[in-house]
Design goal:
It holds the Pfam family Cofac_haem_bdg. This protein is α/β, with parallel strands linked by helices and 290 residues long. The chain contains 11 helices and 8 strands.
C-alpha cells in the first residue's frame, strides 16, 4: 500500500513538472544555455551592448530592465543607457526629465514618445533618473528618415547646420554588404525601382549610422553603454553594430538578439536562426504590449 502511495505521489509530481511554463531562455553563440547571472557577468566586460527587442514583447522589455538593473550592480553604476526610441533633437527634453526639471506629463507633451513608452520604456528611463545615469537619445529625427526614403540620401545635404547636428555626419556609406540590408532589398520585390529600393535602404542606413555616431560620441572609457533597439538594427552584427565597427574596430561590443519560438521548451529554433553573441528565445504567444 505504501509503495502504491509513493508511486501515485511521484506520478503526480511528474505531471506537475510537465506543466511548467518557460517564459524565456538565453543561449550563447555556441548554442549553450546561459543563466542570467552568467550573462550579466559577461556583459560587464563589454564597451557596448546592443539589447535587441521585438517592440511589443512584454517579456523582452521586462528582461531589458532586469538585466540593466543587474548590470548596474555588477558594474558599480558604470553604465550609460541609450535607445532607438528617442530622437536626437529630443535630448534636451529627456535631460530635463532626468534631472527632475520636467515631470512625466511635460516630457510627454514636449517630446515625441512612442505610443508604448509608458509600459515599455518609461521603466528604463526612470531607472536612469533614479540612479542619475545618462540616457542618450540616439536616433535620427523621424522626419529626416522619411525624407531620405522619399527623396534619397542626397536630399539631407539641404539641411541647415543645426538640423545636420541631429543626423550622422555626411556622407555615410550605404552598401548591401551590410548584414540585413539585402533582406530589405528582397522584401521590396523584384519589380521595385532601383532608386526606390536604395532610398528605402538608405533611410534604414541613416538611422543606423546616426545611432552608431551617437553611441561613439557619448560612450566613456570604463563604462558599458547599453543600447536598446529593434532587433533588426543589430541582428547578424549588422546595422548599428556594422557602422560602429567601420569607425572603431577595436571596441568590444556584444549583441543580444531575440527570437520567438512555438516550442514550449524554448529550444533553439530549427529555422531562421542566425545567432549573435547572446540569443534570447521567447514564446511566440507571450503577451504583447500592443
Amino acid at each position: 500500500m505504501k509503495n502504491i502511495f509513493i508511486m501515485v505521489l511521484l506520478a503526480g509530481l511528474c505531471s506537475l513538472k510537465g506543466q511548467d511554463f518557460k517564459a524565456y531562455q538565453f543561449y550563447d553563440k555556441k548554442g549553450k544555455e546561459i543563466t542570467t547571472e552568467k550573462l550579466v557577468r559577461e556583459l560587464a566586460g563589454y564597451d557596448v551592448v546592443f539589447f535587441g527587442e521585438n517592440h511589443n514583447s512584454s517579456i523582452n522589455h521586462w528582461l531589458q530592465l532586469k538585466i540593466t538593473e543587474a548590470l548596474y550592480e555588477k558594474k558599480k553604476g558604470q553604465l550609460i543607457l541609450g535607445a532607438e526610441m528617442f530622437e536626437r533633437d529630443n535630448q534636451a527634453q529627456l535631460d530635463q526629465y532626468l534631472s527632475g526639471k520636467f515631470d512625466a506629463k511635460t516630457l510627454k507633451d514636449s517630446a515625441r514618445l512612442w505610443n508604448n513608452y509608458a509600459t515599455d520604456y518609461k521603466p528604463l528611463v526612470d531607472f536612469a533618473k533614479n540612479k542619475k545615469l545618462n540616457f542618450i537619445a540616439t536616433n535620427i529625427p523621424r522626419k529626416y528618415a522619411s525624407q531620405t526614403a522619399k527623396e534619397g540620401l542626397q536630399s539631407l545635404n539641404t539641411l541647415n547646420e543645426k538640423e545636420k547636428t541631429y543626423i550622422a555626419r555626411l556622407p555615410i556609406q550605404v552598401t548591401l554588404d551590410t548584414p540585413g540590408y539585402p533582406e530589405m532589398k528582397a522584401m521590396m520585390g523584384d519589380h521595385a525601382e532601383g532608386t526606390k529600393v536604395m532610398n528605402f535602404i538608405s533611410a534604414q542606413a541613416i538611422k543606423d549610422a546616426t545611432m552608431a555616431e551617437s553611441i561613439l560620441k557619448n560612450r566613456q572609457e570604463g563604462k558599458t553603454f547599453i543600447h536598446y533597439n529593434g532587433n533588426y538594427h543589430s541582428k547578424e552584427f549588422g546595422g548599428i553594430y556594422w557602422y560602429i565597427r567601420q569607425k572603431n574596430p577595436t571596441l568590444k561590443m556584444a549583441v543580444i538578439s531575440v527570437f520567438e519560438s512555438e516550442d514550449p521548451e524554448l529550444n533553439i529554433p530549427a529555422k531562421d536562426y542566425i545567432p549573435t553573441d547572446f540569443n534570447l528565445i521567447i514564446p511566440a504567444d507571450m503577451a504583447k504590449t500592443f
